[in-house]
Structures are given as C-alpha cells and as structure tokens.
Amino acid sequence: MSAVREAGAPAPRPGRPGGPTPPRAPVAVRVVTGRVVRTRTGGISLRVQGRALAVTAALLCALAAVMGVTLTTGDFPLSLGEVLDALFGSGGGAADFIVNTLRMPRLVTALCVGAALAVSGAILQSLTGNALGSPDIIGFTNGSATGALLVIVVAHGSMTQIALGALAGGLATAAAVSLLLLGRGLNGFRLVVVGIGVSALLLAVNSYLITRASWQEALEAQAWLLGSLGNRGWVHANAIGLAVLVLLPLAFLLARRLSMVEMGDGIATALGVNVGRTRAALLVISVALAAFATAVTGPIWFIALAAPQLARGLTRSSGPALVPSALMGALLLALSDLLVQRLFAPALLPVGTATGTIGGLYLIWLLITESRKSRA
C-alpha cells in the first residue's frame, strides 16, 4: 500500500515512518553564516570578521617588531639571542641587568599603559558616540592627576597610595561630570563641552598644588605631569600589569553589551540589556583604566583619543573594537617611547611630549574632519 500525503501536510521527518524525530548527537560549537561561532545553547557566541582578524595579526607582528628593536638596541646593543637568554635566566650579568632591570620594565609599562588608555578611550567614545570622548579631553585624566598630586605633595605617599589617589580623583571627576549632566543623558557634544570645562578647572587646581609644594616636590610633580616612562621599574610594571589583568577582561566581556548600547537605549533595552547598569559599569572600568595608567606614568595625552579611532578605521568595525584598540594603544606608546629614546638621545625627553605633539596634530585633523561631516 502506498502512502498518500494530503496537500499542505508536512513531509515526514527522517527516522521511523510516522515516528518521532531521532535525537541528534550533541554538537559543542557550530558556525552560523560563516561569521558567527557560538555554542549550541547560544550562551556563548563570537562574531568572527576576517578583516578584524587580519588587522589584529598585523598589529601583533608590528608590536613584536617594536619590542625586539627596543630590547636589542640602545647605548649597549644586544643580539636577539642575548636578549632571549637574559629573559629565560641564562644570560650573562651585563645582559641580564640591561634587559631585566633597565629595558623590560619600561617596555612592559609602556605596553600596559598604552592598552589601558586605548581601551578607556574606546569605551568612552562608544558610550558618548563622539570621537572626542576620551579621558584626556573630558577631564578624567586631569582628575586622576589631581588625586595623585594630592598624595605626592600633601601626603608624600607610596606608589600604592598614589595609584589609589589617582583612582579616587578620576572617579570623583566622573561623578562631578555626571552630576552636571544629571537628567540630560550622556549626549556626546554636551559631555565633551562640560568635560573640557571640568578639565580646565582641574588643570588650575594642579598648578596651585605645585605652587604650594616645596622646591623638590614641585620639581618631581612637574616632571611627573609631563608623562614619562623613564626610571620605571618592576614596581610600576607590576602595578599597571595587575590593573590591566583585572580590568581588560571585564571590558572585553561587556563589549557585546557596549555594541548594543551604541545602537540606542531603546534598542538595547529591547535586546535585554540593562542600559543604566551597563553604562555605569563601563564608565567605572574606563575611569579606572585611565586612572591607573596616569598613576604609573603621569598624564600621557592623545593615546586614548587616537588609538580607538585608528583601530576602527583599520578594522572598519561597526562595534567598539576593544581588542584592536588595546593593541593599537600599546603599539603607539611603545613606538613613541622607542623613538624618543633613540632619536633624541642622550636627552631625556618625556614620552608625553612626543604623544602630545603628534596627538595635537591628530586632534586638529579630527576637528576639521568632524566639522566637514556636520556641514554635510
């Protein structure tokens, strides 16, 4: 007897005729549309973009090259083999001192500070929807500097106390800016204008603190305010390394929610994102990253402004692109410090001077570009 199916009736599924669908073997990971990798339950998903992966790989290669040149060149040139022997504990006394005491702590500090500033800037630019939304423009960096200067000049504190003072100053500045914008939302233009005003006020406070300090303290504070990686040892590298190790994974975990918030509060809420808590958590992470970076090296300008924009431009990503931004920030600061050491030797030029000069030109270009976009 032949089976007859009425028109419109569903076709029988594979398995026993007329019986239930046999269970399929569980699959741990599957690829959807060739770009999204996620677990079968959908609890964890990752969007894979070929261009972003290529840019990330290129940044890693460039970073490795800068690290190699930094560790092998200088007043005492070393071969790559000598550097590797020193890093693995089998090098000679001179090579071990040069690599592990002089060059490596400074390099690690540069990498971590650059990554921290870049991710801090990427988060703020994404939250505000404004390319000028970075901690050095809005005033969070100056607020962190004020907190650190209070510890240096008034309390004569240690490295740990300076870091805590910078964090408190940055958070207090963020709270002040938020209060000034209470009920009006984080509108990009309004936030930038208010932040510039707060930053100018804090700059005056910092100048006042220096005038009230002793001669030696004023010299130390002024040198710190220039932003420098000179004389940075493992105590500085470990401090910023620990902060980055804790805060960057938290930022990466919230990157997906940040992308949803970028689409607007209404859409993000419809997608199940608690917009208020997400904004607050990301703002705290951004301020903390900028504060710890400032506590270790002093204010280093424009890394937080330029690195996220360059990373987005290279990846052409619609989201915040936090990982490429972190690599771009680390590369920019490490490369700037390398150029300062090699091109201006034996002069001890602070790296903040180099980033400020280049960043100022970038800011001019960015303002002209944004002005043309607004006219169009």
Task: Explain this structure.
The protein is mainly alpha-helical. The protein is built from 15 helices and three strands. It has helices spanning 50-72, 80-87, 93-128, 135-138, 140-155, 159-180, 188-211, 215-225, 234-253, 255-262, 265-270, 275-297, 303-315, 322-343, 351-375; strands at residues 29-32, 36-39, 45-47. A three-stranded antiparallel sheet has the order 1-2-3, with no helix packed on it. Strand 1 (29-32) and strand 2 form a beta hairpin. Helix 3 packs parallel to helix 10 (255-262) and helix 13 (303-315) packs across helix 14. The longest helix has 36 residues, at 93-128. The N and C termini lie far apart (73 Å).
The backbone outline, from C-alpha atoms, is globular
- Mean pLDDT comes to 82
Alpha-beta classification: mainly alpha
- Proportion of residues in extended strands: under 5%
Quick structural summary:
The chain has 376 residues and is mainly α. The protein is built from 15 helices and 3 strands. It has a 3-stranded antiparallel β-sheet, with no helix packed on it.
What topology emerges from the helices and strands here?
Layout: E1 29-32, E2 36-39, E3 45-47, H1 50-72, H2 80-87, H3 93-128, H4 135-138, H5 140-155, H6 159-180, H7 188-211, H8 215-225, H9 234-253, H10 255-262, H11 265-270, H12 275-297, H13 303-315, H14 322-343, H15 351-375
Antiparallel strand pairs: 1-2, 2-3
List keywords for this structure.
15 helices; globular; disordered N terminus; 3% strand; 376 residues; three-stranded antiparallel sheet; mainly alpha
